[in-house]
Design goal:
mainly alpha; elongated
């Protein structure tokens, strides 16, 4: 029985990595100049204002909100991890018990998710697709 639970947990994890990084890619595309979230919220103007600020925390916030793909992918994963853990517990397939194991699993999930997310963001669209 544990083996089936472990397989379900790891399949769920892979699906959540993929889904989260697809959402990350869509969101990052939507905030680019002239795209829907930029048109609605003037996202690129906000990023330019944050980047032009002399305050370090505003510069860092701008990076996390889309000015830097690495920072954007890095800061998206903690938010996605919360969704992942809540959904895993709701579906009753969460296998990680104990604070130490949860911290270790967070590090694994975040590291892999952020690197894959960054590769999603840096992938260029080919002509004709």
């Amino acid at each position: 029985m544990f083996m089936l639970s472990a397989i379900a947990f790891f399949l769920f994890t892979i699906i959540m990595w993929f889904a989260g990084n697809c959402i990350l890619k869509l969101y990052h595309t939507a905030i680019q100049k002239g795209q829907i979230l930029d048109q609605i919220f003037n996202w690129q103007n906000m990023l330019a204002d944050l980047y032009a600020s002399e305050k370090t925390w505003k510069n860092n916030l701008g990076k996390a909100l889309g000015d830097c793909p690495t920072c954007f992918a890095f800061w998206f994963m903690p938010i996605w991890y919360v969704v992942y853990i809540l959904l895993g517990k709701k579906l009753e397939i969460w296998l990680i018990n104990g604070i130490g194991w949860n911290i270790l699993w967070y590090i694994v999930f975040h590291s892999i998710g952020a690197v894959v997310g960054l590769s999603f963001l840096l992938t260029k669209k080919k002509d004709g697709l």
